Backbone:
């Protein structure tokens, strides 16, 4: 049973933010989660934090970058361990779910060639010819 002090939250109701982000499977390693927090790009209840030891608990709202998205989640539970993804999903409520890949910013167009990779000299000549024809019109 957790130790409860008068007027204080139970000791086990709060957890380090880097550990929680790792347990909730937002980051692959705890050191990567600590690095993101230490960079100052994480907010807890709209307040920027820069210490990985900052404690979070139920009902805290976290805003942080993950890959090329900004995630906004509400902490539901501190968690006991880094378990499977289905267990990790129970630790938070996603307030702004990530957009599907089809709705994200379009990737720059990369021409595809028959054999893949870099164009051959023949492909390059054909590309130059089509550009010349487009300019002449």
Residues:
């Amino acid at each position: 049973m957790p130790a409860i002090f008068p007027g204080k939250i139970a000791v086990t109701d709060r957890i380090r933010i880097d550990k929680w982000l790792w347990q909730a499977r937002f980051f692959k390693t705890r050191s990567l989660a600590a690095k993101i927090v230490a960079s100052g790009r994480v907010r807890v209840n709209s307040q920027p934090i820069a210490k990985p030891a900052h404690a979070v608990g139920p009902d805290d709202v976290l805003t942080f970058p993950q890959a090329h998205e900004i995630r906004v989640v509400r902490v539901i539970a501190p968690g006991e361990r880094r378990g499977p993804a289905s267990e990790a999903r129970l630790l938070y409520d996603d307030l702004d779910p990530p957009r599907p890949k089809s709705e994200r910013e379009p990737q720059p167009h990369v021409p595809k060639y028959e054999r893949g990779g870099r164009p051959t000299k023949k492909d390059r000549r054909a590309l130059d010819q089509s550009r010349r024809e487009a300019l002449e019109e």
Notes: The chain is about 25% helix and 20% strand. Residues 107-137 form one domain. The chain has two domains: 11-98, 107-137.
